[in-house]
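#struct-help
A.M.: can someone run this one for me? Single chain, 114 residues.
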Amino acid sequence: MKTLTINLPEEFERKEVLLSIAGQLYQQGALSARQATDLAGVTMNELIYSTLSEDDPLKEYIKPVDQNRSVEDMIEAQIKKQGYKGFDKERFDKFVKDLDIKEPFELLISQLTK
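D.P.: on it. Structure tokens below:
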């Protein structure tokens, strides 16, 4: 392994510079994803996010995780965003009854593998 020393002006943050270098080396195939994330000290999600162009629609789906939010808070936000109302058991039971399936469950499952 080689060592490189770079003197950065004060306005540059070390993490951002390392992320930029690691992202470029990853895109060029000089580093594996694991090596790039180790070099930058970031998650795979952060590395991929940093390599996308500003107008790439994928950025909306893999935006960096807010470390100050709990998983439960993120799930709740997603539920609200998508307008999820939950599982309607009565509607499901009515659907099952209306289908009136007579075959045994095992037979139905076995047909999926054919």
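A.M.: thanks! The CA atoms of residues 1 and 38 lie 14 Å apart.
D.P.: also worth noting: The mean pLDDT is 87.
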